[in-house]
Design goal:
This protein has two domains: 114 residues, no CATH class; 60 residues, no CATH class. Helices cover 39% and strands 22% of the residues. The chain is built from six helices and seven strands. The chain has a four-stranded antiparallel β-sheet with strand order 1-2-3-4. Strands 6-5-7 form a three-stranded antiparallel β-sheet, sandwiched between helices.
């Protein structure tokens, strides 16, 4: 039930940025803290203490709250939420602005974490064949960079066999992240 699943949602989230992000604290290790910004201007602080219950959204001022809520309304965040899993509310009008703000901030945190994870995965592609999975990424890692494997006799054949094996075992929704295999001689 996230805005990350739709193109319009991702576009909306691009206007929101974060600073001083801290994750993984509290009783359930799902705590999150972040200063959140709209178009580069600080709007407030978000705090999920990781102990259950409601999160805290503290705006810099009432004027900042008004600006952020206008942003939510102008971008039809409630409708996007309703269309992507929040229809259990029965009506888009029942999704209040606080819930919309919490969803946008949480999704921005998740988007930034996903981007960070993908950057690491792309780096790992230099030494392995990486797969994007539902919860992150995994794959086969080698002790040598893929380019170094090519220096060995049958290096391309070895990489081709590993690629074919990984591809044959992909689950629904998974895909190979590597963009460097074709240039190494692997037939995709």
């Amino acid at each position: 039930m996230s805005l990350l699943k739709i193109k319009e949602g991702k576009e909306t989230l691009k206007r929101v940025s974060l600073k001083k992000v801290m994750l993984g604290f509290g009783h359930d290790k799902c705590g999150a803290f972040a200063e959140f910004y709209l178009d580069g201007k600080k709007m407030g602080e978000f705090n999920d203490d990781g102990w259950g219950g409601e999160t805290d959204i503290d705006y810099v001022s009432d004027a900042h709250k008004t600006v952020f809520e206008k942003f939510l309304k102008d971008n039809n965040v409630a409708q996007a939420m309703f269309d992507n899993g929040w229809d259990f509310m029965g009506s888009v009008d029942k999704i209040d602005l606080r819930c919309q703000a919490e969803t946008v901030i949480n999704d921005t945190i998740n988007l930034k974490e996903e981007e960070k994870m993908l950057k690491k995965a792309i780096k790992d592609c230099e030494c392995g064949i990486m797969i994007k999975t539902e919860g992150g990424y995994s794959g086969i890692r080698f002790k040598l960079p893929l380019k170094a494997i090519l220096l060995y006799k049958d290096g391309v054949k070895f990489l081709q066999e590993k690629y074919n094996s990984v591809k044959a075992n992909l689950k629904e929704g998974e895909y190979i992240i590597n963009t460097n295999l074709e240039e190494l001689g692997v037939v995709l």
